[in-house]
């Protein structure tokens, strides 16, 4: 066992999740969630106290098994997510189901299993949302719907669990592999210098986590600065 507070981060093998892990590594024991075991091992090897936590978030039995050993959890960061763009007329039911399953249902189920551990620590939950969770634009229907639902989930969790601190973070476009794929699907150039860095989003997360105990940071909205 470690004397450090424990943080579980989903989507920790790359992008924003990996940046959040790096930001918390000096002070926390990390459970690095994701599907790619080798990638998680590589990330964990660079931190003083970290362990891979490979689990398929959409598998209820696997999720129940993976969470059963955790009796105390200080921080839960939901960073895993998917995005598929397209008009409503072109978006098939499979995309709607998979997007909502990963971006909303898996978040709700993981949180449900971990509530006893979070309550024991009077812990904190951070949900990496999106600007699409505040404003829905053409071609972003399924993704925006999932992020609006994620916002509602955070609001209800905050109200129902007053001993927990629950923060929704709404980053604008961020320089990640997902953003590269989105720009390709939009037929646009990927220009990372115009976007937030994952490290900037991670700093927003740590701001909420390190707030004094009398403060509850409900929401953080971060956008790239105009150049």
Description:
The chain has 227 residues and is an alpha/beta fold. Helices cover 43% and strands 15% of the residues. It is built from 7 helices and 7 strands. Helix 3 (60-67) runs parallel beside helix 4. The chain starts with 5 loop residues before the first strand and ends in a 5-residue tail after the last strand. The model has no long low-confidence stretch (mean pLDDT 95).
Summarize the model shown:
This protein has 227 residues and is α/β, with parallel strands linked by helices. The protein contains seven helices and seven strands; from the N terminus they run βαβαβαβαβαβααβ.
**How do the strands line up in the largest sheet?**
3-2-1-4-5-6-7
Number of helices: 7
| Distance between the ends | 47 Å
General form: globular
Q: How many strand elements? A: 7
Please trace the helix and strand order, writing H or E for each element: EHEHEHEHEHEHHE
Largest sheet: 7 strands, parallel
The structural class is alpha/beta
- What oligomerization state is this entry in? single chain
Hey, roughly how much beta strand do the residues contain? 15-25%
- If you average the pLDDT, what whole number results? 95
């Amino acid at each position: 066992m470690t004397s450090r507070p424990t943080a579980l981060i989903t989507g920790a093998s790359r992008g924003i999740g990996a940046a959040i892990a790096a930001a918390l590594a000096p002070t926390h024991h990390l459970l690095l969630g994701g599907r790619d075991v080798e990638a998680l091992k590589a990330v964990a090897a660079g931190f003083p106290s970290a362990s891979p936590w490979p689990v398929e978030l959409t598998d209820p039995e696997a999720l129940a098994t993976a969470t059963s050993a955790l009796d105390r959890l200080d921080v839960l960061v939901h960073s895993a997510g998917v995005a598929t763009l397209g008009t409503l007329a072109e978006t098939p039911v499979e995309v709607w189901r998979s997007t909502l399953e990963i971006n909303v249902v898996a978040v709700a189920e993981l949180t449900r299993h971990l509530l006893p551990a979070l309550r024991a620590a009077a812990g904190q939950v951070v949900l990496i949302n999106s600007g699409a969770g505040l404003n829905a634009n053409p071609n972003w229907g399924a993704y925006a719907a999932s992020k609006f639902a994620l916002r509602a989930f955070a609001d209800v969790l905050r109200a129902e669990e007053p001993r927990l601190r629950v923060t929704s973070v709404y980053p604008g476009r961020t320089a990640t592999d997902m953003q590269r794929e989105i720009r390709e699907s939009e037929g646009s150039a990927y220009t990372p210098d115009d976007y937030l860095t994952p490290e900037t989003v991670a700093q927003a997360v740590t701001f909420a986590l390190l707030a004094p105990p009398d403060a509850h940071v409900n929401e953080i909205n971060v956008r790239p600065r105009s150049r």
